[in-house]
Amino acid sequence: MTTLTERQIGTYPNPVFTSITELATCVCAQIVADGLPDVCFCGVIPGEAASAMYQGNCAKKCGMAWVRLVAVAPAAGVGVPTETPGNCAVGIGYEVEVGVLRCTPIGTATEPPTPAQLLGAAELQHADMMSMRRAVYCCTGSRDWILGTYAPMGPGGGMVGGAWSVSMWSL
């Protein structure tokens, strides 16, 4: 069985993959542009859920940013699914998840994180939330995208953050 390597990326081009990789590039660039701490991993991930295992093994960084495909359906436009028989002539609508998880203070068995540590983690979580929002609105293809709801994630596994849903559409 052949595994996918960087050399093979782009072998199977399609508008869904193109939009998702474009958005991931925008998210990674926006984190840097906003002066936020770097993450160990930033890019596209496959599968049904983001896993903190992608946070990397960094000596001085902790965290991950991602874009992930959530669902796909025939659609007449962005956010407009169609259930018309013979709908193969319409476009394709898809939902993606854009998220950031970072290490968070967890305290010890006898002492929880301090209020100042929790406040700092919340401030960074909110800064990441706004940075992802800017990335979605400022990215090149965003005219066919709708930013949905932001959902906080964590602090399971010592990671905290959140993810936005984004509706996309293409022919």
Which key features would you list for this structure?
single chain; 171 residues; alpha+beta; STM4215-like; 2 helices; 6 strands; elongated
Describe it.
- A hairpin with a 2-residue loop joins strand 2 and strand 3 (80-81).
- The longest helix has 24 residues, at 115-138.
- The protein has 171 residues and is an alpha+beta fold.
- Helix 1 crosses helix 2 (115-138).
- It is elongated, with a radius of gyration of 18 Å.
- It has one domain (12-170): STM4215-like (2-Layer Sandwich), CATH 3.30.2000.
- It contains two helices and six strands; from the N terminus they run αββββαββ.
- Strands 1, 2, 3, 4, 5 and 6 form a six-stranded mixed beta sheet that branches.
